[in-house]
């Protein structure tokens, strides 16, 4: 009987010791990367803004990528925003985003009136633009050795399946 109580006491001690261990507080095992796409056209009617509802945890990092070939029908090439496009004649168009806990707003700003873009320019920079929002847990990205500007490196690091 004494041996049984000794084993039980050791088991309880081991349980308490492991439950009080705080070395892994940085690991967030209940969250995972999330990805969603947004497609739309920027124009004066929508104030050159696209909105996407999405639940964003306070511990998430928000990354937004633009398909550089959205309006041209070319192959997919993802580029991290914010990004400035130099259109020519001193014109600059910026892609940027804002977010809160429930929404991501992707918008353009320019040092010129965006309504003056030619049809071809509007197709390249404003019409049918496709964006990919990627949420990664901050705890997993905190010490990550990954180039966040490289879309494919982010997918590999966070083990996210790509979409066509």
UniProtKB/TrEMBL annotation:
Signal peptide: 1-19
Keyword Signal (UniProt): yes
Keywords in alphabetical order: Signal
Name of the featured protein: Uncharacterized protein
Organism the protein comes from: Kaistella pullorum
């Amino acid at each position: 009987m004494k041996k049984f109580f000794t084993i039980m006491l050791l088991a309880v001690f081991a349980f308490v010791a492991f439950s009080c261990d705080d070395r892994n507080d940085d690991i967030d095992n209940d969250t995972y990367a999330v990805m969603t796409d947004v497609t739309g056209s920027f124009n004066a009617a929508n104030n050159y803004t696209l909105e996407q509802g999405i639940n964003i945890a306070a511990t998430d990092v928000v990354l937004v990528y633009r398909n550089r070939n959205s309006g041209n029908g070319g192959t997919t090439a993802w580029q991290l925003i914010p990004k400035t496009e130099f259109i020519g004649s001193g014109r600059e168009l910026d892609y940027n985003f804002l977010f809160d806990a429930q929404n991501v707003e992707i918008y353009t700003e320019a040092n010129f009136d965006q309504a003056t873009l030619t049809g071809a320019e509007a197709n390249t920079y404003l019409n049918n633009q496709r964006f990919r929002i990627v949420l990664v847990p901050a705890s997993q990205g905190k010490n990550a050795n990954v180039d966040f500007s490289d879309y494919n490196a982010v997918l590999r690091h966070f083990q996210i399946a790509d979409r066509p």
